[in-house]
Amino acid sequence: xxxxxxxxxxxxxxxxxxxxxxxxxxxxxxxxxxxxxxxxxxxxxxxxxxxxxxxxxxxxxxxxxxxxxxxxxxxxxxxxxxxxxxxxxxxxxxxxxxxxxxxxxxxxxxxxxxxxxxxxxxxxxxxxxxxxxxxxxxxxxxxxxxxxxxxxxxxxxxxxxxxxxxxxxxxxxxxxxxxxxxxxxxxxxxxxxxxxxxxxxxxxxxxxxxxxxxxxxxxxxxxxxxxxxxxxxxxxxxxxxxxxxxxxxxxxxxxxxxxxxxxxxxxxxxxxxxxxxxxxxxxxxxxxxxxxxxxxxxxxxxxxxxxxxxxxxxxxxxxxxxxxxxxxxxxxxxxxxxxxxxxxxxxxxxxxxxxxxxxxxxxxxxxxxxxxxxxxxxxxxxxxxxxxxxxxxxxxxxxxxxxxxxxxxxxxxxxxxxxxxxxxxxxxxxxxxxxxxxxxxxxxxxxxxxxxxxxxxxxxxxxxxxxxxxxxxxxxxxxxxxxxxxxxxxxxxxxxxxxxxxxxxxxxxxxxxxxxxxxxxxxxxxxxxxxxxxxxxxxxxxxxxxxxx
Length: 549
Hints:
Layout: H1 2-49, H2 54-139, H3 143-308, H4 323-343, H5 350-412, E1 416-422, E2 431-437, E3 444-445, H6 451-468, E4 473-477, H7 485-502, E5 505-509, H8 513-518, E6 521-529, E7 532-539, H9 540-548
Parallel strand pairs: 4-5
Antiparallel strand pairs: 1-2, 2-3, 6-7
Keywords: ATP-binding, Coiled coil, Cytoplasm, DNA-binding, Nucleotide-binding
Protein name: AAA family ATPase
Domain RecF/RecN/SMC N-terminal: 240-533
C-alpha cells in the first residue's frame, strides 16, 4: 500500500505530461477548425459566384455539409479535450489528497510505533514484575505489601493491554485506509485507461478532420474551377442564343412573307372561284335559254304540223306587200298576240313533268309504306323494351329497396326507411322518393332530415345500388366529411363488411383520422423540398407488425 501511494505522484506527473502532450493537439485542432472555416467561407463565396447549376449547388451543399461536420467534430474534440483536462485536474487533486493522507498515515504510524513498543516493553516488564512479586510473595511473609504490589502490577498490565487494544484499533483503521487508497488507486488506473482510450478516439477524430479538411480543400479547388467553365458555357449559350434569335428573325420574316403570299393567293382563289361561279351560272342560263328556244321551236313546229298536217308547208311570204296588207298583217299579229296573252302561259314540259311527278309519287308511296312498316316494327320493339324495362326496373327497384332498408337500419342502429315511385303509375316515367324514419323521429322525406342524416341516408342508397351491382373498385371522395366520429366508425365497419363479402377494393379520399386509421394502406403527398411533391405510401399492417416486433 505504501508503494502504491508512493506511485500516485508519479502517475499524476504522467497525467500532467499527457495533458501537456495534448495541448499541441488542441492547437492543431484549432488550426484545423480555422482552416475548415476558411474552406467553408471560400466554398460559400465560390458557391455564390457560381451560375445556377444543379450540380454546382449539390457540390456546394456537400462542401457546406462537410464543413459543418468538421465543425461538429471539432466541437466534439474540444469537448473531449476539456473533459480530459478536467479529468487530469481531478487526478491531480486526488493524487495530492492521497499523498497528504499517506503522509499523515506515515506520521501517525511513526508517532504510534515508539508508544506501542514502549507499552509492549512495559507490559513485558509488568508481567516479569508480577512473576517476581508472586515469587517474593511466596517467600516473604508481608502479605499486605505484596498484595499491594500485585494489584499495582495488575493495574499496570491492564493499562498496557488497553493501550495495546487502542494501538491495534489504530492499526486496523490504518489498514482500512490503505485498502481504500488501494481501491481508489485501481479506480484511478481505470480512469487513466479510459482517458487513454478517449485520447486515441480524439486522435482518430483529428485524423478524420484532417482527411475531411483535405477533401474540403479539393472540393473548394474544384468549385473554384466551376465559374470559368460556367462562364464558357454561358458564352457558348449566348452565342447559340444569338444565332437562334437570328434564325428565328429570318424565319419570322419568311413566315410573314409566306403568310402575305398565302392571303394574296386565297384572295385570288376566291376571286377566281367567284368568276368561275358567275361564268358557270351564265353558261347554265345560256343552256337553259337555248333549251327553252329549242323547245319553243319544236312546239311551234308541232303546232304547225298539228294544224296544217304532217306534209303541210307554209306559204311563201309575198315578195312585195302593200302598206294596207302590211297593216292588216300587223294588226292580225297584234290580235293573235293579245289572244295568246289572254290564254296565259303554256307549259310545254307539262307531260314530262307529269311523268316525273308520277314517278316521284310512286317512290314516295313506296317509301311511305316502308316507313310505316319500320314504324310499326319500331313501335313493337319500343313496346317490348318498355315492358322489359318496366319488369327489370321493378325487379331492381325491389332489390335496391330491400338492401336500402337493411343498410339504413345498420348505419342508423335502428329506424326504418323505404323507397317509393311517385308521380306516375308507369315506372319508366315515375320519380323516386326516399322516406326515412331515424330512431326517435317521425317518418319524413329526405329533404326534412338533418345534414348528417341526409348523408347517411344517401350513403345507404348508394351502397344498396352498389351491392346489387358490385364492381371490383369503388372510389369514395370525402363521404365522411359531414359525419361525426360514431357514424364514421359505423361507415368503416360497413366498408369492411362489404369488402369481405364482395372483394371490392375501396379507394377513399379523406382527411378524417378515424377513417385513415381503419384503412389497410395510406397514400399521401408530401413536400419535403419547396416546389417538389412526392407520393408516399404506408402499409399499416406492416407498420403495426414492425411496431409490435
